[in-house]
Structures are given as C-alpha cells and as structure tokens.
Amino acid sequence: MKVDHWQAEDGSLTEQTLRNKLQRLGYSVSRYVYPPGTYFPDHTHARDKIDAVITGQLRVAMGDHSVILKAGDFIQVPRGAVHSAEVIGDEPVVSLDAVKLR
Fold this sequence. Notes:
By secondary structure, this protein is mainly β. It has one helix spanning 15-24; strands at residues 3-4, 27-34, 39-43, 49-55, 57-62, 65-69, 74-77, 83-88, 93-100.
C-alpha cells in the first residue's frame, strides 16, 4: 500500500485544491463526512478509486497491511481489492472519494 502525501508544490492544502488534483488525475470526486466510530468492513469496488483525507484520521486496511491517512494523504484502491476503513480518534473525517473515469 502506497500512501501519497500532499506536496508543497501542490500549494496550500484545501478541499478545493485536493479535489482539483484528483480531477486532473482523471477521477470523479465526491465529498463525505464520517463521524467518529464509522467502520466499513471488508468490501470491494468495481472501479479503481482513491480515498483522500482532508481532516481527521482514516485507517485503511488491505490484506495484511494497514495505514492511517491524515490531512493531505491519499491512497489508491485498485478495483476488486478487498479493503476496510475506519475513522480513528474523536474527530470526524472529511474525505474525498475519487472514482477513476473510464
């Protein structure tokens, strides 16, 4: 699992700048807010996607590996990859869910 981090050359991290970056990479982007305690059990998606975090902390697990995403972090989830996700801590997670355009 490779986590990408927001880079200084990307400018200031805001919801809009992160959305713009994901759209330039060829993704359709939706915004979600997940309260503390939210848990998504193992599941898959039919299309490649990216999970990106604007605020809060989100643990994503695939196979025997897991990472905690923080503000500006994003991870690619290949279509068909079994994975789970969980909000960590007391802060809601504001997330951008990006699905690869065909």
